[in-house]
Amino acid sequence: MPAPAEAPAPAAAPPPVDLVNVQIDGVWHKFPKGTRMIEACKQAKKEVPHYCYHPKLSSPGNCRMCLVEMGMPPRPAPGTEPEKDEHGMPKIGWMPRPVIACANTVAEGMGIRTESLLTQECRKGVMEFLLINHPLDCPICDQAGECRLQEFSVEHGKGESRFREDKVKKPKNVDIGPRVRLDDERCIMCSRCIRFTAEIADEPVLGFTERGSFTTLAVHPGKRLEHNYSLNTVDICPVGALTSNDFRFQQRVWFLTETNSVCTGCARGCNMEIGARGDTIYRQTPRENNAVNSTWMCDSGRLDFHFVNSEFRLTDPMVKSGGKHQIANWKTALSNIATALAGKKGDEIAIIASARMTNEELFFVKHLAALLGTTNVDVIPRTGGADNYLRADDLNPNTNGAKLILGIEPGAKLAEITELMGRGRLRAVLALGENLLKVGFAQRDLEKVPFIASLHILANASAELSDVVLPGTAYAEKRGSMINATGRLQRLNKAVKAPGNAHDTWEILRDLIVACGGSNGIHTIEDVFKRLSAEVPALNGLTFSKIGDLGVPVLETSEKIPLLDREKERKAKGIIVG
Question: Whole domain around residue 44: which residue ranges?
């Protein structure tokens, strides 16, 4: 008789956290042992100004702006008890000199003063040295409005300068890469950019040359700052030394409205902020999400917004009449599609949707296919984007959503649809979010289809062949949800209005279903997601608002994020805070 199988061992409990008592500005707190002093102060809601420190990078302690007063209980004489304060804690003996908060960790009984006279005088001294050679060109600096030097000089600087010598002149408007420019006179030698290129991007192309007041930031000889993560150096630069060629002199930051959203450049779904004024997007910058992209973002993703502002945007529905497209109203355009589809068998209709569509839009694609009785439904796969950092191999942002909602494997039916099209067996094709001539379909095959309807945001060759053209919305012009490569459900938010008479894509599909004889009753994106979550088990119990700004995991995948894996290792070794 075989021995009974052993029961699985219970999961080991995490080791207990060793907490220490720390006094910050007279108030006692508890923090895990090893916490950086600057992070402890942050948790206690006490701001410690800093420049060189960044939680995702190593701490060189070279700007000295984070100096604080520190103390420890004095060692009692043999046979005596330590002196206690009114809280029953050992009384602190304060050191006569300050310490940097970014590179030191808390210990039992430690005291920290962030607002003492010594601390304030140290900050004023550091700020005075930083401003000695800094140019006073705030009115023309792109960093104005979000410059830490500006902010801290007001809070901690002197009202006037005692410097009477000539400022040191350094290189200005230096081309150091295709997307970044350098103004060395503004650099305060915090070294954030140097550490980012060496520690995160693995291309240490930046460094300091010369000494003292003549120290300058430079690119290594024969090198350029041109990797696909170069614009992160602009984000982390606390002053206007590094600026984006794309955003440079385009807009003042205080005029921009920032909207939380996610990048749709690949399946990673990096969290970002869309900066827009009016209905024009001016920049996209990374937003922190430690489960997706940390605080970084690739250049190709952040710059992939200019098509939203394109002059080639479709702005009105169009119906082909006499071989030419004429602007029509929405009712006419949708009625033409419904009339063309009426009486056709399901196997005579094909729907080419897109894995760039939101879950809510794919929900209506599914119901439209069911209403028309067709199983000729597919989305276009796109691969080949992976790097060893954040970029996913899948270049579609919502492949997991398409698999989950449509129940298909992207690309599995394309060959069959192409064959039916080539044999003249298809009588109607709906191209939803894809330019068919750009994704592998031949014009000679498309010309065999009696009726084609396109839903897109840009004028394109497939739209030219189409009998009806519908203008939809780009990712920044709508609300919706997507599931990224690691199975995380995330939310798009509307940052700008769609141009002209373009409608929200999910509303177009809903109205098309109604025009074809389907039911209505859905009026908001929340209503759509409620219906979606009821039909899809992985989304059961969720609402659109519950997705939140950071998203929620809904699927298990084998996808790994190389940059985050390395970040966890560095955090475990104590190199970074994370």
Answer: 19-126
Residue 96 lies in a domain: yes
> Do 385 and 451 belong to one domain?
yes
The answer on 327 and 301 residing in a single domain is no
Where are the extended beta strands (E) located within 433-521? 451-456, 468-471, 480-483, 488-492
Residue 317 DSSP symbol: -
Q: Other C-beta atoms within 10 Å of 341: how many?
A: 23
Q: In this structure, how many other beta carbons lie within 10 angstroms of the beta carbon of residue 4? A: 6
Total count of domains within the chain: 3
Classify residue 407 by its DSSP letter. -
Taking Cα atoms as reference points, which of 398, 368, 391, 407 lies closest to residue 480? 398
Token pair of 388, please?
A: 């060893």
Check if the beta carbon of residue 196 is closer than 8 Å to that of residue 232: yes
Tell me if 231 sits within 8 A of 299, measured CB to CB.
Answer: yes
> How many CB atoms are closer than 10 A to CB 439?
15
pLDDT in tens, the chain (578 residues): 444 445 455 555 556 678 999 999 999 999 999 999 999 999 999 999 999 999 999 999 999 999 999 999 998 888 788 888 887 888 999 999 999 999 999 999 999 999 999 999 999 999 999 999 999 889 999 999 999 999 999 988 887 788 888 899 999 999 999 999 999 999 999 999 999 999 999 999 999 999 999 999 999 999 999 999 999 999 999 999 999 999 999 999 999 999 999 999 999 999 999 999 999 999 999 999 999 999 999 999 999 999 999 999 999 999 999 889 999 999 999 999 999 999 899 999 999 999 999 999 999 999 999 999 999 999 999 999 899 999 999 999 999 999 999 999 999 999 999 999 999 999 999 999 999 999 999 999 999 999 999 999 999 999 999 999 999 999 999 999 999 999 999 999 999 999 999 999 999 999 999 999 987 778 999 999 999 999 999 999 999 999 999 999 999 999 999 999 999 999 999 999 98
Question: Is 140 part of a structural domain of the chain?
Answer: no
Query: Is-contact 291 281, C-beta < 8 A?
Result: no
Q: What one-character-per-residue DSSP string does 177-218 give? A: SSSEEE-GGG-----HHHHHHHHTSS---EEEES-GGG-EEE
Whether residue 157 is contained in a domain is answered as: no
* 357 & 461 share domain: yes
Q: What are phi and psi of 15, to 5 degrees?
A: -60, 145
Q: Is 447 exposed, middle or buried (0-12, 13-18, 19+ CB in 10 A)?
A: exposed
Final residue in a domain of this structure, among 309, 333, 351? 309
Q: CB of 220 within 8 A of CB of 206?
A: yes
Do 232 and 301 lie in one domain? The reply is yes
Strands (E) in 245-315, as ranges, are 257-262, 271-277, 280-286
Structure tokens at 417: 């649809």
pTM of the full structure: 0.93
Which of 126, 150, 183 terminates a domain? The answer is 126
Q: SS3 breakdown of the chain: % helix, strand, coil, rounded to 5?
A: 30, 20, 50
